[in-house]
Amino acid sequence: MPKKPSTVFVCQECGYESPKWMGQCICGAWNSFVEEKVYSDTAGGNVDPRSRSPYAKNGGKPKPSGASAAVSLNAVQSGSRDRLDTGIEELNRVLGGGLVRGSLTLIAGEPGIGKSTLILQTAVGLAHRYGKVIYVTGEESEEQIRMRADRISEDIPESLLVLSETNIETIEAVASDAAPSFLIIDSIQTMYSEALESAAGSVSQIRACAVSLMRIAKVADIPVFIVAHVTKSGDLAGPKIIEHLVDCVLYFSGDRSRDLRILRSNKNRFGTTSEIGAFEMQEEGLVEIHDLSGSLLEGMDRATEGAVATAIYEGTRPLLLEMQALTSTAGVGFARRTPIGFELARLNMIIAVIERKAKLDLSNKDIYVNVVGGIRPEGTSADLAAALAIWSSARGIPVDPHTLAIGEIGLTGELRSVKGADRIVREAARLGFTTIILPKKNAVKIDTPAGVTLIGASTLFEAVNAI
Predict the structure, then answer these.
(1) CA atoms within a 13 Å half-sphere pointing along the CA-CB vector of 44
(2) Torsion region of 333: left, alpha or beta (phi above 0 gives left; psi -120 to 50 gives alpha)
(3) What is the pTM (predicted TM-score) of this model?
């Protein structure tokens, strides 16, 4: 049947299709539409690339009436126990206990941060444990993949297969014939479907390829990893619909001038999104950091002005880190407030509370706050440490390196309780801290470990007096 091209306009932000160009999309984005050509058959229906898949059921046509039936939820077998061990404990932690069969996982990060190294290490481990694994590369040659594999592993299993291909229909056919236990796509921006005229990396191509990969994962019960690029602002490149399609979204971040790498889950249908995994980039690849708190506190061996240890609760474990602050006399104009790894609006609020409740004038001071190690603490448990670090720097009074401070600061200067305080105290005692300043509501509920002094404070003023 002859095919006739038609034109649609696709939003680059959400993937919404419109028959005509729109200034503002329904998602709120302005000037986000791009023109895409779609081929239709003479009957007037759009050609769906999914109908050409070897996984498609009934020739890609709708199922006949009565083919689908509702079933009792009690009769459905839970897949919570059916997880694959990747061989990387930190990755298993972030995924919620392992890789779920039939799941579609998207991993993103800046170029050169170590995404390909991480997934190749995962592929080697899964190939050893579960058999055939296919690594599809659209950016690098097979020789480049082998060079990286030689660097990270001395024992490359025969069941680890590599495919240099960008055609999604060919990839589907290979996956259908090989029936692997794990499939990797590196990267989604290089893949294309023959059913679409647009170039690889366009909104329509990325969306169509993501749908095809989702079908492979769900129909064949194969876990699929997709590598994606990020924009200059750090957001995922491509339409937002990809994030809605996948089961898990992982972000791999870190400073390329440092060896520390952090893996964080932004979406996870099979686990929590508050877990993080820590790695160190070395010559032989990524090495897991099991004691992240200890590595982040390496420099706290003496009393220093403007340095206070604090802790946050990430997923199922406490994470201790160092909060630094520096105050200096402001020059001409307004005083600067510069946080690194800390929210600017929260820093401004803490400074206002310090001036009002701790009776410390900071109006003529430039203030810099830094969270050592590149960790961005989520939540409010690091408020008290930031306030004490600023006070210590402004007053020129060093803080004992064996003192740790946690607590949320309210606008009235009161200290509010934080979650996981009992586990934070136990972890701090293990690392040698002897004094812990925390909200009084937390302190009264905790059994004090041996050799540790708990100081429960109700207000910021009381916490300042404690140091």
Answers:
(1) 0
(2) left
(3) 0.76
